[in-house]
Amino acid sequence: MTAAADRPSNAPVRPPFAGWLGTTNDVTKTFLAAGRIPGLINMAGGLPAPETYPAEALAAIARRVIAEHPQDSLGYGPIEGLPELRDALAARLGGPDFRLGRDNILVTTSGMQGLDLLGKVLVDEGALIAAQAPTYLGALDAWRPRRPRYRALRVDQPDFDAVAGLTGARFGYAVPNFSNPTGRLVPMPVRRRLVEAALATGTWLVEDNPYGGLQFDGAALPRLIDIAAREAAVVAPGAAPSAAPSSAYDGPVIYMGTLSKEIAPGLRIGWMVAAPEMIAALTMAKQGSDLCTSGVTQRIALAAIEDGLVERLQPDLTALYRARRDALCAALAEHLGAWFTFEVPVGGMFVWVVARDPRIDTDRLLNAALDAGVCIAPSSVFDASGDDRSAFRINFTLNPPERLEEGVRRLAGAVRRLTDA
Ligand code: PMP
């Protein structure tokens, strides 16, 4: 029985919830609720391994920054973020061909807030978003209240036409490094085409890069923002970059990053890099969201960056995740290879597992998997229309190898039951 049905019949009728709540995907609710089932092996989330959180180092930093910077840590701060952190991010995030100034940087309450602010700034009802498909579920969630329309950017297809993809859109959205959900890299020629199309059509292009630091094999590809800066020759060849923290970058790429995957998601620290006019608009939107990101965690983030914490953690983190990826892929090949195909990702947190037989419906597989004690994320939640039931996303970072293997065994049992039925 629902809570509403329990209320006395003469109770006044409460106003309805906003209409967008009725448009959420039921499968999303199912798999978010699954996190609370005891004994379940959760392979659905995009969660780091909790044992990698540098708790002692962060505790020491927290004690120091609150004692040394009580006003910054405990007071309200500037909406855009602490100036020292913005300068440190500007110095860190510039590329070989361009420099960034303080007014190219907005500190956000992690990556999710950046996506929410983009919706506030760029999306009116019915506006078109051109999103790499399949699309990060959190982005779809962030923009759903604004009721956008979507065009799928199928960057993996050989005939992908970036100009046609971006024309008429408020912005393009891509996760070029180890995409959520597919774990794939957008190849270099497609990166170039996307940036050229953004420049040619005057479209903003959002580069969401939470996983770039989690590369296990091979060398990193240039970011979209690097390519845009080069194409637009933001700093004329031969011109000496100025050391002053004034603005330089004015390109179409809006770059987003976070500390969630490389340090700890509980810090809720992220950043956006963009042309100053876009940073100003996002700042207006942020004022109406949270006034400012937590000063304590901004100060912790600044100290962690200055101490080189990310660089110190990275080798162990990538070694751990590489081994877990290998364990998961071996188990997938052994137990699910007859029914599904997948590519081995060279970084990130996910493998995208595609059914060989179109009769396998991965929404139905989720329910069978939950009965078997394992949770995966079906493709429908990464599809703006909710229709795609051909694949699922599976995570390899949260669980140790034995548990990954046990999860895949349970999943194979669920597939067998589903295909025998
Ligand atoms: N973008 C993508 C593609 C993600 O996968 C995530 C985390 N799952 C985020 C943004 C947001 O992460 P956070 O808010 O923790 O920075």
Automatic annotation (TrEMBL):
<dbReference type="GO" id="GO:0008483">
    <property type="term" value="F:transaminase activity"/>
</dbReference>
<dbReference type="InterPro" id="IPR015422">
    <property type="entry name" value="PyrdxlP-dep_Trfase_small"/>
</dbReference>
<dbReference type="Pfam" id="PF00155">
    <property type="entry name" value="Aminotran_1_2"/>
</dbReference>
<dbReference type="InterPro" id="IPR015421">
    <property type="entry name" value="PyrdxlP-dep_Trfase_major"/>
</dbReference>
<protein>
    <submittedName>
        <fullName>Aminotransferase</fullName>
    </submittedName>
</protein>
<dbReference type="InterPro" id="IPR004839">
    <property type="entry name" value="Aminotransferase_I/II_large"/>
</dbReference>
<keyword id="KW-0032">Aminotransferase</keyword>
<dbReference type="GO" id="GO:0030170">
    <property type="term" value="F:pyridoxal phosphate binding"/>
</dbReference>
<dbReference type="InterPro" id="IPR015424">
    <property type="entry name" value="PyrdxlP-dep_Trfase"/>
</dbReference>
<keyword id="KW-0808">Transferase</keyword>
<keyword id="KW-0663">Pyridoxal phosphate</keyword>
<dbReference type="GO" id="GO:1901605">
    <property type="term" value="P:alpha-amino acid metabolic process"/>
</dbReference>
<feature type="domain" description="Aminotransferase class I/classII large">
    <location>
        <begin position="56"/>
        <end position="411"/>
    </location>
</feature>
<dbReference type="InterPro" id="IPR050859">
    <property type="entry name" value="Class-I_PLP-dep_aminotransf"/>
</dbReference>
